[in-house]
Amino acid sequence: MARSRLFSPTMTKFQLILLVSVFLMLVGNQQFFSNITKVYPLDWSTAPFIASIAVVFTAALVLLLSLVCFGRSTRPILILLLMLSSFAAYFMDSYNVVIDADMLNNVVHTNVDEAGDLFSWRLVAYVVLMGILPSLFVLRVRIEPVPFKKELLSSAKMFGGSLALAAVLIVSLGNYYASFFREHKILRYYANPTFYIYSTIKFAGRYVETAPRAFASIGDDAHIPPEDQDRELVIMVVGETARADHFSLNGYKRDTNPFLEKEENLVNFSNFWSCGTSTQVSVPCMFSELDRDHYSEEKADSTSNALDVLAKSGANVLWLDNNSSSKGVADRVEYHSYKSSDTNPECSGEECRDTGMLTGLDDYIRNHPKGDIFIVLHQMGNHGPAYYKRYPKEFERYTPVCKTSQLEECSQEEIINAYDNAILYTDYFLDQVIDVLKRYTPQFETAMFYLSDHGESLGEYDVYLHGLPYMIAPDEQKHVPAVMWFGSSYDSVNIDKLRQHKDDRLSQDNVFHTILGMLEVRTDVYKPKLDILSSSLAPEDWQEKSASNAQPKE
Ligand SMILES: [Zn+2]
Fold first, then answer.
1. From ligand 1's centre to the CA of 273, what distance in Å?
2. Residue 382 C-alpha to ligand 1 middle, in angstroms?
3. How many CB atoms within 10 Å of residue 259?
4. How many Å from the N-terminal Cα to the C-terminal Cα in the chain?
5. Given Cys at both, which of 28, 121, 138, 249 links 89, Cβ 3.0 to 4.6 Å?
6. pTM for the whole thing?
7. DSSP-based three-state secondary structure for 377
8. How many angstroms is it from 240 CA to the middle of ligand 1?
């Protein structure tokens, strides 16, 4: 097929790679350079260094492409790179997120509904202007055909040339680069596309390295001691994206917990910290026996978790999910999704309410006449960025609200208003859970444990959403609300004594042992000093527990 010469210019492979690399560097790195100039304010002395960074990162990309672009592979690789980079640039520019291996893991595990919330016309504009249009150009270009030997030689030149150029610049601006690489590691996380390429290799490596592990069964000795004749009914609510400092129980200036504030027998833990900054990390981690320092997804996935051990003790375990999934935690127990109107009676459009999960509980409890009952309700909670979708109209107390997923189009006040309305709805939902439990008191020893998986950034330091690497994530993404409520029949806890420890530093490392403690399960894997409730037994136990407890682990 003859192509018109006008629309299909001829280039060498090197020219095309260089053109694409320079294009990506200049157009796709707004966030990268904005973060660099925060650390190295632009003036006459820093300008050569900042310009050199653009050259060094372009050279790194050319170097990388010289290794993978051969013959027919050149065009598809460049097009894939342009398309992916346009998405990466959109999310980095809009939410100040970084695309590390954990973020890729979140993306892989995100379902279509969640992804739908992230759609915006601005995203379309990024993809068209930075992805599709340049890709069409790459498709039209005529790449000068050269014999293989010659191509190999030119790739070697490309590789050597870019390496030499980068080395010369780094050495000649040595002082700047020393601080750039050592003290300001984080800045590199924003480089598009080099950092996400690095993350992809790292992410893929996790799967290549780990041959399927044998499942490690722990807590096989779990049992309820014969003297414990009472049946426990415990509901654990796993919250979503709620941050501690937006709970009035923790002193927030707005009255966001009007229902919970009125409950007696409630203990609010004000100093509770998450294991990760995403659902994908925090949810499996909190149910795992591993602490944050030793947690890995592979290990948690292939070892019995708190729910498995409860089931071994003879308890009836149920997981209801109005979020994306249990992230593997409920793989071996009864599980029902409440994400559609097939199961959840409280859906309108695509949104199903957390309160819908309560509708089948009476049947479940009636149908399980023996043994303890432990139910997890996995909320939709404050899942962003579309906070305004997360509550029914009557909970819209704070206005005006941000009514789009494009947070950059809203004022911070509008974003926070929508977010706080969703907290109000969670407050109502938790009170509904307590109402269910009250109906089963004193028939059961009843208790509720509410805990959010991670927090959320709402524009502090220009950061939005969550999922930043734990090391650099602000406290807003890690400090989570945690609340317990006990029915009057739940006599194995002294609430007044427990309240004396409500401000102690606790973390999701405590959850595994606390759940086992709440149901009075005996097993060798249970560590009383990590069980939050054991503090209500004797002060010296608590001292021991607090001392060994999770300090911020960076
Ligand atoms: Zn989450």
1. 14
2. 9
3. 16
4. 60
5. 28
6. 0.80
7. strand
8. 5
